[in-house]
Design goal:
Layout lengths: L12 H5 L2 E3 L4 E6 L6 H19 L4 E3 L1 H4 L5 H6 L1 H7 E8 L7 H13 L5 E5 L29 H15 L3 H13 L3 E3 L18 E5 L16
Parallel strand pairs: 2-3, 2-4, 4-5
Antiparallel strand pairs: 1-7, 3-7, 5-6
Helix pairs in contact: 5-6
Length: 231
């Protein structure tokens, strides 16, 4: 993985070829981020997290990153598989910048991860525009009041469809409970787990399939890892 991969969401054969198939449950984190946030800050936060991960686990992290792991020439097909990708990852890494909560797809990623992987953990790295890039990851301010109904999608039809899913799943808990839960999930830095008992799918619905994963950090030539350039 390279910082350049965060510059654009446009299709790139270089990005897609940097990933490889991975077994269900092998991928360490699903990387959740907004394409509207600062590239350098996201990269710095990712590198900081990667260093912490390698120190704790003595291995390179495997990361699900949308531009590398979804065939951008068939993006709608890939997006329909989002629940499978999220379920295949152990944890979710949230790079929370100023625009994160304003993007409905980001909110949906958090929500779906909770529904299908309730034992998984949301790891938050907040981006701070005032921080030095090498130490990005300190607290960044949240909006005064989050309301998922104000979140945006590039495609209005996507918003209608996604909101219907959220409203249906929230059920008696209601949208306000959902809004509060989302805010709690990504406030500050650290690890989050658990939350309201929104409707969850049964374990029999889990698909035993493969996803694609990319690595970050120093180059690795281990057979099961992706070869990547030094940070």
């Amino acid at each position: 993985m390279k910082q350049d991969f965060f510059e654009s969401s446009h299709p790139s054969s270089e990005c897609y070829e940097a990933s490889r198939p991975a077994r269900f449950g092998e991928v360490h984190v699903f990387l959740s981020h907004s394409w509207h946030d600062d590239v350098a800050l996201k990269w710095a936060a990712l590198q900081t997290w990667g260093s912490e991960f390698r120190l704790a686990h003595d291995c390179e992290p495997l990361i699900w990153f949308d531009r590398c792991c979804i065939d951008q020439e068939q993006i709608q097909v890939g997006l329909r598989c989002l629940p499978v990708y999220l379920s295949a990852c152990q944890d979710l890494l949230c790079l929370r910048g100023p625009s994160y909560l304003s993007r409905l797809w980001c909110v949906v990623e958090l929500f779906v991860f909770h529904l299908i992987n309730p034992k998984g953990t949301v790891v938050v790295r907040a981006l701070d525009a005032d921080a030095d890039h090498a130490t990005a990851g300190q607290d960044a301010k949240l909006p005064a009041a989050f309301d998922v109904r104000s979140s945006l999608c590039t495609d209005p039809e996507d918003k209608d469809r996604l909101m219907s899913v959220i409203e249906s799943a929230a059920g008696k808990e209601g949208i306000q409970t959902f809004n509060t839960w989302i805010e709690e999930q990504i406030s500050g830095n650290g690890r989050r787990s658990g939350g309201p008992s929104f409707s969850k799918r049964s374990s029999s619905e889990k698909s035993q399939t493969t996803s694609k994963a990319g690595g970050t950090g120093k180059a690795s030539t281990v057979k099961v890892k992706v070869k990547v350039p030094p940070a």
